Amino acid sequence: MKKIVYIFLAVFLFGTTACEKDILDLENPNSPGLTALTTEEGMKRAGLGVYDKFGLEYWWITLQNHDIMGDAYFTSVGNFGWRWVNQASSITLSDGTVLTPPQGGSQATELRNRNSRAVGDDNAMQYEWLSMYLVNNQANLILSAVENPDLELTGDAEAKKKVLRAWAYWWKGFAYSRIGSMYISGIIANTLNETNNDFVSYEAVIAEANSNFDAAIKELEGVTATAEYEAFLGAMIPSFTKVGKGGVLSPQEWIRNMNTYKARNILVNKKVEEMTAADWNAIVTLAENGIQANDKIFTMRSANENDLVSLTAWQPYRSLISVWSHISERLIQEYYPDDNRMERNFAIPARGYTQLNAQGRGFAYSTRYTLIPIEQGGDYASVEAGSAELNIAGSYEENQLMLAEAKIRLGQVEEGLEIIDAVRAYQSAGLPAVAGSGISQDEAAEVLRRERRVALLKNGVAFYDARRFGFLKPVSEGGGRTNAVVLHNAKGTLELDKNATIDYNYLERWDVPENELDFNAPSAGSAPVISPR
Predict the structure, then answer these.
(1) What is the tens place of the pLDDT at every residue in 436-450?
(2) CA 74 to CA 457: how far, in whole Å?
(3) Are 468 and 500 in contact (CB under 8 A)?
(4) In this structure, is residue 528 part of a structural domain?
(5) What secondary structure does DSSP assign to 217-264, as a single string?
């Protein structure tokens, strides 16, 4: 059954604030402002408007959800339901002492208790769903407008239409990838301002994502990187992101970005033990045609004016102030000795720790380390506008580490290790070569797992990896993390336990938010909207 949903459309044409909470305000889609979509300038603004649809819901809340569930960062604050998002069920110290949270139950219980419109901002499950379907609808708007016979474009109009379609299909592929990689099911919504109540499995959502990537690739195969192309596409990319690894992608760079994301979609949506040789070989094919070292990619930065993260509302800023976000001891323990990336990014303050049982909410919220700002040589965090850069989608390092993992899993261990060495060199890690060290396939897989944790901190894949490696399952089912480093003073003195066991017991996929279901009950035959775990 189709349902018409009128989404607030004026922001992409006339506004630039990313932290609006009334993003679903209703407006007549036939309003006069939409006549701008018959002009080239209007279409460029529509393309740029995709970025605005992400909002606070994505740039800060969603990305932090992934970071903290992957135990790369942690937060003890209750805002947006965060304290429950990363509440592990228990920590067992090496002497057998069991530490449980002082409040609440398991993560699944607490998140489901708050999966309701009645709790407002505390419903953590709503944010990625909301932001990605807004992005998807903006892409639908572009696809609809580009077919309008009244649309007037200068120069090579057909090439510009291909770019517009590719832009829309790329973002639809991205949005469906995020939905399908997070929720147990989703909706395929490919018509402007229309939804439906036919919920499909996450596998079907991922298939739709890849179909959109393929559609974008098909459009780009007939496009040349002329000056006109660069100016037209460049108008749809925020100017303050066109530095560092960001910028205007050539058609071939863009295609390689999509190949990398398609490889990610294979990798992160199955457990390691569920992967087949065909899966690994598909990743090899995609990654060998994926992002290269000097390619431009999709990035986000802050800015002094008209930025998209309100300068302060994202991980790179919040990880340097107060209690909002801190690096996890379990991330720190992944670094090998003498890794330059560790030395330039993390430091222990004079008192010996940064957080200890933060806000009295448990020792999972403890760390010795603080982040070193970019201005002092770090890579990740800054309170200065424009300094920090996050990868929106894939990166060269992620592409290469997927290729390395596929090679290792297929028995080509030395080839995989050589790729890991190359990634480390690319990031100036300063580590000795692991290729030629004679380690086994299992040992190589562990080196790969740790390298992904370290090298891809800016890619937001920690939760996906924790899920596929089995850490999120209950300890009773073979999950959890052993040999974990935990800082605590449970016995009255500060101790660093290096052999603790953490029973995360997290949801591996999230339920469909009640914010959706309250107004859109699943049709008969819909896929389940509640995750089995």
Answers:
(1) 999 999 999 999 999
(2) 13
(3) no
(4) no
(5) HHHHTT----HHHHHHHHTTS-GGGSSTT-SPPPHHHHHHHHHHHHHH
pLDDT tens for residues 232-249?
Answer: 999 999 999 999 999 999
- % of the chain beyond a pLDDT of 90: 92
What does pLDDT average to over the chain? 94
Rounded Cα distance, 153 and 50, in Å: 20
For 511-529, the pLDDT digits (tens) are 999 999 999 999 999 999 9
Confidence of residue 190 (pLDDT cuts 50, 70, 90): very high
Q: How far is CA 247 from CA 208, 234, 316, in A?
A: 27, 8, 20
Let me know the angle formed at the C-alpha of 100 by 97 and 102, rounded to the nearest 5 degrees: 130
> Residue 92: beta bridge partners?
98, 501
Provide the whole-model pTM: 0.94
Q: Check if the beta carbon of residue 146 is closer than 8 Å to that of residue 43.
A: yes
The count of domains in the chain is 1
- Measuring CA to CA, how many Å separate 339 from each of 427, 429, 455, 458, 513? 10, 5, 11, 17, 41
Q: From the DSSP assignment, how many helices (H) and strands (E) are in the chain?
A: 19, 14
- Answer yes or no: is 24 within a domain: no
Strands (E), 315-451: 326-327, 346-347, 370-371, 390-391
CA–CA dist 47, 34 (Å, integer): 14
- Distance in angstroms (rounded) separating the CA atoms of residues 201 and 526: 8
Question: Is 300 contained in some domain?
Answer: yes
pLDDT digits (tens, 9 = 90+) for 457-506: 999 999 999 999 999 999 999 999 999 999 999 989 999 999 999 999 99
Going by C-beta distance under 8 Å and a sequence separation of 6 or more, which residues neighbour residue 322?
none
Spatial distance between the Cα atoms of 338 and 342, rounded to a whole number of angstroms? 8
The answer to whether position 370 is within a domain reads no
d(CA 22, CA 346) in angstroms, rounded, equals 38
Domain extent for 132:
37-321+388-518
Neighbours of 320 (CB within 10 A): 21
**CATH label of the domain that carries residue 217:** 1.25.40.390
